[in-house]
Amino acid sequence: MQSSGFSLIELLLALFLVATIVVFGIPTLYGFVESTRVRTQTREFATSVSLARSLAITTATPVIICASRDGTECNSKSWSDGWLIYADTDKNEQPSKQELVNFHQALPSPLSLVESKKSIKITFSFDGTLTTNFTFFLCGSSDKRAGKISILATGRSRASQVAGSSAC
Fold it and tell me: Strand 83-87 relative to strand 134-139: parallel, antiparallel, unpaired?
């Protein structure tokens, strides 16, 4: 007579295989998710920089990107808190409601965005240029994953992935 079901050995073997997949698969999945977050947020910041430069050129007005917690003023010392884009039409270097263009909320934990010179403001002149070069690093929880955004004084920006950075 044949009985249906699993034997104890078959059940233990199946549990062993599942445990092995979980032990080795979860850390790999976490690394993949974090790498994707770093890439996505790097692109979002690079897109914000391109938007600000484009707006400065098309409106012939200075456009400023600054670190901001609340999206109404430049009130943060960390780019990780979020950033604000505004057209400085009155040239007072302070955002007003009429000048606001875009706001990006804080980065998800554990990501951080740092500028190599610790600047908290980027000002594009009316022709889309800057007074100096800027380099930003978007860092994950490990030194293995970082995004790099380089902004030249000409206003052109470039986003790339780097193996890690001492800025992180």
Answer: unpaired
- Spell out the domain ranges in the chain: 8-162
Q: Which two tokens stand for residue 158?
A: 């470039």
Give the model's pLDDT for residue 18.
92
Number of H helices, E strands in the chain: 1, 8
Please answer whether residues 79 and 72 qualify as being in contact, where contact means their C-beta atoms are separated by less than 8 angstroms. Answer: no
Tokens of 146: 């970082």
- Global pTM reads 0.82
Class of domain 8-162: alpha beta
CA dist 168 to 3, 34, 62, 96, Å?
61, 15, 30, 33
Residue 165 phi, psi (nearest 5): -145, 145
pLDDT tens figures, 120-150: 999 999 999 999 999 999 998 876 778 999 9
